[in-house]
Amino acid sequence: MKLLEQAIGPVRELVFLDLEGTQTSHETIAIGACSYICDEHLLPVKGKPIKIFKRFIRASSKVGKVVSDLTGITEDTLVSQGIDFNRAISELIESTKIPGGKRKYITFGNQDIVMLKASTLKDTSGKAMAYYNHIRRNWFDFQDFVSRYVFDGRHVTYSQPKLLQIFEAEDLKHAHDPLYDAENLKNLFIAVSTKPEILIEWFLKNVENSRHSGKILKPIVDRLLSGETISPEKFSAFLKEYFG
User: Fold this and answer.
1) Residues of the chain with CATH 3.30.420.10
2) Are the beta carbons of 131 and 93 closer than 8 angstroms?
3) What CATH code would you report for 2-195?
4) 198-229: per-residue pLDDT in tens?
5) pTM for this structure?
6) Span 74-103, pLDDT tens digits
7) Dihedral (CA of 141, 240, 217, 222) sign
8) Where are the alpha helices (DSSP H) in the chain?
9) Contact status, residue 148 vs residue 211, Cβ threshold 8 Å
10) How far is CA 157 from the centre of its chain?
């Protein structure tokens, strides 16, 4: 999809991230990720593996009952399987690194970035902040992109599971497991990338309430004002060209 390619820019690798955090301090307690080398259309290069990554991370505050009930992650989980935050982030960056290639970290919403930032606050070495800054500089919020065009009648963004349904993408059905959620984000990303007709359908459905309608339709309005007749076929072709 041309519109998404323009928003992300030229990259060689995409890393899809999902984090779980403590109930009160929002420190990271689990990271899930999957990544792939991408072609010029941001799709996986054939023959190249899709990498997966999952780590539990020790936190200075309690997990919290609500988080434990949602995720299954307990204090015992972190004691037996958790590692230091700096080590986890270092392993994430190293495991997804490809020589000479720019990467983009994709999340669904900004809460994952908030949790990463919270985990840097008690580190005095500066390493955690350096890792955070690297991810933050190369971060793309996919929820923000999709929600410009796909939203309900109250302008509320749909959840990731609902968007998987809308774009007819595979749903692994393991909510609040960071690895499965990261893989679902990857599935949604690929579905959106390859089905611009669904994005166009939702843009037209929400055109009166979209904050982006004016910018998108300005070239059409200018052509109408210049005296050109815009047929339904021309309008459809314009949208296909715009969204790609």
Assistant:
1) 2-195
2) yes
3) 3.30.420.10
4) 999 999 999 999 999 999 999 999 999 999 99
5) 0.93
6) 999 999 999 999 999 999 988 877 666 789
7) positive
8) 2-8, 65-71, 75-81, 85-96, 111-118, 127-137, 142-147, 160-166, 178-194, 196-205, 213-225, 232-243
9) yes
10) 14
